[in-house]
Automatic annotation (TrEMBL), chains A, B:
The keyword Phosphoprotein does not apply. The chain crosses the membrane at residues 288-308, 314-341, 362-383, 389-415, 427-451. Keywords: CBS domain, Cell membrane, Magnesium, Membrane, Metal-binding, Transmembrane, Transmembrane helix, Transport. SUPFAM superfamilies: CBS-domain pair, MgtE membrane domain-like, MgtE N-terminal domain-like. This is Magnesium transporter MgtE. The gene is mgtE. GO terms for cellular component: plasma membrane. Belongs to the SLC41A transporter family. It is found in: Cell membrane; Membrane. It comes from Nitrincola iocasae. The lineage of its organism: Bacteria, Pseudomonadati, Pseudomonadota, Gammaproteobacteria, Oceanospirillales. Pfam families: CBS, MgtE, MgtE_N.
Amino acid sequence: MHEEAQFSSAEEQLVYLQALIEAEDHSGLYHALADKESADLARWLESFPANQRHQIWLAVPDSQLGEVLAEVAEDIRTEYMTDMSVADVTEIVKGLDAQEVAEVLDVVEDHLKTEVYESLDEIIRSQVEVLQAYDEDTVGRYMDPETVNVKQGVSLEAVQRFVRIHKLLDDESQEIMVTDKDKHLLGTITLIDLVKQNQDALVDEFMYKAFTLNDNMKVSEAASVLRARELYFAPVTNVEGVLVGQLNIADIIEITQDDSDMTLKHMSGVSDEEELFSPILQSAKSRGIWLGINLATAFLAAAVIGQFEAVLEQVVALAVLMPVVASMGGIAGSQTLTVVIRGMALGQIAGNNRVWLFNKELWVGLTNGVIWALVVGLISHLWFGDPKISLVISIAILVNMTLANLAGIAIPLMLKKLKIDPALSGAVILTTVTDVAGFLSFLGLATLIILH
Amino acid sequence: MHEEAQFSSAEEQLVYLQALIEAEDHSGLYHALADKESADLARWLESFPANQRHQIWLAVPDSQLGEVLAEVAEDIRTEYMTDMSVADVTEIVKGLDAQEVAEVLDVVEDHLKTEVYESLDEIIRSQVEVLQAYDEDTVGRYMDPETVNVKQGVSLEAVQRFVRIHKLLDDESQEIMVTDKDKHLLGTITLIDLVKQNQDALVDEFMYKAFTLNDNMKVSEAASVLRARELYFAPVTNVEGVLVGQLNIADIIEITQDDSDMTLKHMSGVSDEEELFSPILQSAKSRGIWLGINLATAFLAAAVIGQFEAVLEQVVALAVLMPVVASMGGIAGSQTLTVVIRGMALGQIAGNNRVWLFNKELWVGLTNGVIWALVVGLISHLWFGDPKISLVISIAILVNMTLANLAGIAIPLMLKKLKIDPALSGAVILTTVTDVAGFLSFLGLATLIILH
């Protein structure tokens, strides 16, 4: 107990493993990985580049290979499973639950899958088939198809005996389901009540209508609902109210985390698959797409500047100040974009509050626009001493910052209407808008006011 | 049950509430909010601007005011609690558990606090005092101080009877703690085993050494450890191994979510406090700080450009292409920064893997740098037909993108050493580096190659 309490940090554990790998101390590694949780082993595999990862992989105890593969990031799972024989995969899926089997089999080839299916325990196989029949991002795909079901009219004591005789609860069981003869869900009873309440009472008395998820609901929506309600688990029913499984919070935590990760990655132009230890070429390739898109928009901005060569030739100070206008618009817009995308994820943007939000962003944009227009105008005056330049940049800052705030809300709303993930392309489109508008307003005004 | 299963989306519920507020239909609102979870009520309060929020607040059932206040975002809690009398607060904290009381009392004034303390049930009061003695970001502050404890050597049946007689388990109980006479934690037993196993067996047989958290550990670190291990809960002990409470996953989900939110906000220059429905002036003010910092760095970049007025006056095409160099560096750098900050949050960066990561980023930067240098050089040649300009921009792109990738890992590592949150200032520093390096390399090379 005390050893566990003296928790050594994730970083310290990593450094220890690194030393073993460097020394190629295989037996040391073998000991370091013995008696560890599969989740930890998976995390360590993810914390090494491919060439060192293999030493860790070889030291994973055979009995945990399956659980570790089910747990680890998809690219690593694929890497290790691609060359496996039917016999290897069959060995690995032994003892896994249906969710884990489905996860593991997702990356193997179809002909192999059929053979492995046949080796599975009949109950697990039918559960795996249930899971795989659902679309990838639905609750049905992520749920645990195994539940403990009892009928109405039995006593708590009888339920306890039933559970004990059939050894029914597994590690993830949270509540007992009460169903009718056609498996329609009538209610659930918590383990807490099962233990705490008078044992002669009937389940009817303590069952309650738990918050229930539909099997075809999007899993990210389910995750945010459960999170908001602080629920540990929810029964899952199909459209006819028939119980098909349960969704546990442990599955959802991963999804929640994934969702926030995605938003962060998408907004910075990093693809879903890239991890810290992805190989060089894979990283270069996955980032290349975003660099290409960015290049196109950068040249669009350059083309706008190109229209104003005449004024730039005469007043070189404009070239010096030009990036300031674009940059202030860019930051103002991305502040709004971030707040709006978060609000969308929480389901807070709907109906007529859009009008209020546009109005808010307009006024925030104008307020900050006026303030920073004055500051920038003053600095420019001190620098170049030309009132026309100061006037031009002040107006351009005000226009671009106000427009940036409005674009920061308009762009994600439009993308959502078009069913495009606003985090994915919102930042790129926004930067294009603020760059183009910044250069256009600044150099356009300069042409009007200074050149004529 | 079926009603619950026909889940109406968060957006639909909001639109319904908006209609009631617009019609000032107070009794409609009152009905809409009756029999709802406090977590939902809190979420709705957060989904309206201040002037409309008040109508929702008035319709919250009196019995749920305390739970809703404990649940809602801190600025809203402060807003409603600032003017409350001792009597109001005393009424509100009735029936709350220690964690909720601590949360609510955090925002009231000290003299009020003492009076409210005296009104509390003695057990709750001592628990609140335990919680408030911990630092704000520690496990001790977030834990549930109430646990169910039994001694070694008793049978499962005896534990069940003990729980039943004293009505000991609450909604959040996960496991039963086994302690010695000095409350040192010896192990825990799950409710699942308590129900499932032979009732004559002793707790000793089924207790296990659960993963235990230290009360002074940082709560964000605890959250990431529990998440990685997919644990629903963990006992919390102090440095002497004495059981002081338990940490439940529901508390941690919130923290996890908060952490990802923070990273996203910080990287976009949005302050922690800003929410979608923050008032205009508050939003303008909180964003203003970041706009100011950005302005300083933008003028730094402008100052760099200002050093090269001579070459810009002669070759106006440089002014046109200049933003392309800065923009490509900016994207390349922020891709690296995002991957590195995520890896840090997962505890994946430690020891000698930093060398590997620098090496990786160098090669990713060089690879993408060469490719995009050629592309940009070609486009520039087609546009301006000047081989010198194409050469200059190609070299500048290669230099800036490679440097950007290295800065993307060096900056967060340095900030972490300085104990500064890398998400908070990483993006601003990075953009400064890529802008300055971009303009410097591009215009500097142009001066050398074209002007001389």
